Amino acid sequence: MTKHIIFKLIPDISASIAIKVFGAATGFAGNILLARILGVEQFGIYTLIIAWVYLAIIPARLGFDQSSTPAIAKFIAIGDAIQLKSYMLFALVLVCCCSLSFVSIIGIGFTLFCPPSINGGFLIYIISAAIVITLSIGQFMESSLRGFGLVVYAWMPLSVIHPASLVMFFVCSIFVLSNSRTADTAALCLLLSLCAGLIPLAVVWMREYNKLMFPVKFTAKREWVTTGLSMIVGGSFSILVNQTTTLLTGIGNVSDAGEFGAAIRLSNVLPLVYGTVTGTISYRFSQLWAVSDFDGFRKLVITSAVLTICSVIPIAIFGWIFADLLINLFGAEYHGAIDCFRIMLIYQCILAFGGLGITILNMIGRHGIGFYLVLSHIFLNIPVSYVLISGRGSVGAAWSLTLVAISLTITAWPIVLRQIGGANIFKRKLRKARCIPGNQEGQIRSLDI
Questions:
Q1: Which ranges constitute the DSSP H helices of 61-120?
Q2: Cβ(364)–Cβ(285) below 8 Å
Q3: Which residues contact 244 (CB under 8 A, 6 or more apart)?
Q4: Tens digit of each residue's pLDDT (9 = 90 or more) over 180-212
Q5: CB-CB contact of 134 with 199 (8 Å)
Q6: What residues contact residue 423 under an 8 Å CB cut-off, 6+ apart?
Q7: What is the enclosing helix (H) or strand (E) of 404?
């Protein structure tokens, strides 16, 4: 496994990047379509709706969209099929119940305190709540399949089917509905497209679940929940800071939020690439660590860092040179977002390297450290964003994210190297494996670190 690990990763990485690029191209075309048809004001409102949705799903998923990948990969590595099946059932039930309860509590507050002057406000809430539930379940299942190593099946539904369906549903709404050029119609199309992606994702998830022929035991362990909770923040840094900054920008000026939203969507090509690389490899961090294969772990860390850096720099240079052309794809009224977009390219390049360190911490069970690192920088982003947005609008918002990313990267990597033991950990000998219950062949080593 150690000797040929890099060659084994090439097919998965290539297929994953192809899927992500196709999905991103479709999603990019969809965002341009929405921006042009809705206009800067309605697109700004749509951007704010999406910001609230992505902030709401973070607690609704209880972190299982992050923790299920290393947990399932570890259970497979040590051969514990009984625990694996129990974990999958427990996590699915908990995500469903938590997301439903969370949006219900918000709905009660919305019903009691929403001003009557907000036209269509309750409809927007219903659509947003359904999006939160659907996306929470879908992202948990996607993370689970990555833990199985089925990265292609995991990426396909939400990365290709969802954006393609969004474009199709929105184009159809233009011809079917008389007043379709509104933010709530776009949100409804988003919900329908997520449902279209969730169906095949659930089919593959159930197939893997039913392959486990052991009788299921609905058991729960405190560490499953605490691990997920600690990874809520650590695995959602980009979403938290991006959407929080978007909301702060929209408070001052909705048009600034529209420009910032366009810059974020355009610069998201970079996290698409490096996120695909780390997302494809991440489950192997857990497997190698679980069986104490430190030589393979060393090679994987080095390879991930090199691939991450090399994948983002050329794209960032291309985006910087052709920023005018790319931003104008959204329309002439978004011309003011050019400087914001260029700064966001810098931000994404820095975050690519810093985010890799957080991913490594999460995959090897040091998620508590990643939690405090990310949480401190999320709180740091709020005052920095407030000050810079007040003076420079969307450009200030981009600079605030960049400064926070620099601070996170400088802080994270020394801690990462210290936690994994630096160079010394790669000289440790492989520890003796032991057989565990549920490993019928008794040939897979258990976690003994």
A1: 64-78, 81-113
A2: yes
A3: 55, 378, 381, 382, 385
A4: 667 777 878 888 888 888 899 889 888 888 887
A5: no
A6: none
A7: helix 367-419
